[in-house]
Design brief:
With 323 residues, this protein is α/β, with parallel strands linked by helices. 34% of the residues lie in helices and 14% in strands. The protein contains 12 helices and 12 strands. The strands form 2 sheets. The chain has a 7-stranded parallel beta sheet, sandwiched between helices. A 5-stranded parallel beta sheet has the order 2-1-3-4-5, sandwiched between helices. The radius of gyration is 21 Å and the shape is globular. The relative contact order is 0.15. The structure holds glyoxylic acid.
């Protein structure tokens, strides 16, 4: 039986499949799996089921001489040195597609919640301020406003669809312009133009050397003082200090974030002390159906790789197994 290391348990259906078909060793403690333990477990492992909170680099791979497949339960693979995997001929599985709607729902939900102060309203009721007839700040309309999406992949297109239903105009910026602007109902714009024009800026960029810190003081300075900033991709595409400064000084109006840098963000972090911020704990794909689909695709990727068959969803296709 192939030996598989799992850096955390998968949802039961997928976990059962892997436990039945592999000799799987699961890190089931609450703390993140320590790197030295992972290296030790990988010494004789054929497969690795990874999660975005674990760094996988060339040094770790060098301690895993038998490794023939990695399957990560996420679409973002910035925690994995994919080039190092490719050099060693290790295909990396991931979970695109299945999480598009759930992540778009959460992204648009954050935007709507911030614009209409839904979370503030709940606090207001719970703290007895309603009875005390204390005022609550006003939100803003969505209809007629411009949404600027930075990073227009499948999730961005799904957010654009939701925005259209709310009567918003959508513009987007991508490294490469999409051929189907008409179909996604969004107009291409240079990033500076997008930042100047948008009432809501939504960031859905993958994290890479090129996008790390892409939203900093310079970008916030271009935005409207009434603008809302939503990030549902990776915290490190934003300069957190610059964002906190922009929010504190009224350079922009509000931020709604599903991802932060660092992550998890400490409860006493200065960003969380601001009144005009809403933060959720990286729950973009966190629905029962979507997380189950992600776990099943992870198991499919792992079993295919162990059998030397093509992974159904592979980041580095050049080293994917051939059919
Ligand atoms: C979640 O952040 C993912 O990349 O799937």
């Amino acid at each position: 039986m192939y030996k598989v290391v799992m850096t955390r348990a998968l949802l039961p259906e997928a976990q059962r499949i892997l436990l039945e078909r592999c000799d799987a060793r699961v890190w089931d403690k609450e703390e993140v799996m320590p790197r030295d333990v992972l290296a030790e477990w990988l010494a004789d492992a054929d497969g690795l089921v990874a999660a975005p909170n674990i760094q996988i680099d060339g040094e770790l791979l060098a301690q895993a001489p038998k490794l023939r497949v990695i399957a990560q339960t996420a679409v973002g693979c910035n925690n994995i040195d994919v080039a190092a995997c490719t050099r060693r001929g290790i295909p990396v599985g991931y979970t695109p597609g299945v999480l598009v709607d759930a992540t778009a729902d959460l992204t648009f939900g954050l935007l709507l919640c911030a614009a209409r102060r839904i979370h503030e309203g709940w606090d207001y009721v719970r703290q007895g301020k309603w009875r005390a007839n204390k005022g609550m700040g006003l939100g803003v309309d969505l209809a007629g406003k411009t949404l600027g999406i930075a990073g227009m992949g499948r999730i961005g297109a799904a957010v654009a669809k939701r925005a259209a239903a709310f009567g918003m105009r959508v513009i987007y910026h991508n490294r490469t312009r999409r051929a189907d602007d008409g179909d996604v109902g969004a107009r291409y714009a240079a990033l500076d133009e997008l930042l100047r024009a948008a009432d809501f800026v939504v960031v859905l960029l993958p994290l890479s050397a090129a996008t790390r810190g892409a939203f900093g003081a310079e970008q916030f300075a271009l935005m409207k003082p009434t603008a809302y900033f939503v990030n549902a991709s990776r915290g490190a595409v934003v300069d957190t200090e610059a964002l906190a400064e922009a929010l504190a000084t009224g350079r922009i109006a509000y931020a709604a974030l599903d991802v932060t840098d660092p992550e998890p963000i400490p409860a006493d972090h200065p960003l969380l002390m601001l009144p005009n911020v809403l933060v959720t704990p990286h729950i973009g794909s966190a629905t029962a159906e979507t997380r189950t689909a992600m776990a099943m695709l992870t198991a499919d990727n792992m079993l295919a790789g162990l059998a030397g068959k093509p992974l159904p969803a592979c980041v580095n296709e050049s080293v994917n197994y051939k059919g």
